[in-house]
Specification:
The protein is α/β, with parallel strands linked by helices. About 20% of the residues lie in helices and about 30% in strands. A hairpin with a 5-residue loop joins β1 and β2. It starts with a strand and ends in a 14-residue tail after the last strand.
Length: about 140
């Protein structure tokens, strides 16, 4: 299974995604880095199949096949993920984010506590420095 798809979200935007791996495997939503697209996560489909998982890699708004979302905030992302999960009949799942996708995985883990079982970050960025604070 290595297919790209597009759906229309409830607000009229398009959301593109790629699925890799085993159709009935544990669902993992993988979020690409910045810049990037769903294709960033398609580097080793054989490894995904061997792991026995279903990797669902959506394009974030304004990337790949997904429509740009003016005024978008990080906290808006989990609602897109819920719409895609519902569309795919996926109730519980894991999330993982690569680089700039890391904060998106954390936003989902924070907001979707009843649905996200595990969250992972791959090559996440350093914490942002807050003005007036000291780095350690």
């Amino acid at each position: 299974m290595n297919d790209s798809h597009i759906m229309t979200l409830s607000d009229g935007r398009d959301l593109g995604w790629l699925e890799l791996g085993v159709p009935d495997g544990w669902p993992i939503f993988g979020f690409h880095g910045t810049p990037g697209s769903r294709l960033q996560l398609a580097i080793n489909e054989a490894a995904v199949r061997r792991a026995g998982v279903r990797l669902i890699a959506p394009d974030r708004p304004g990337y790949g096949m997904s429509t740009y979302q003016p005024g978008r905030r990080l906290i808006d992302w989990p609602s897109d993920v819920v719409e895609l999960a519902d569309h795919l009949a996926v109730d519980r799942f894991s999330v993982m984010g690569v680089s700039g996708g890391g904060p998106h995985a954390l936003a989902c883990a924070s907001v979707l506590k009843e649905r996200v079982v595990v969250a992972g970050i791959v090559s996440g960025a350093d914490p942002c420095r807050i003005r007036g604070s000291r780095s350690t």
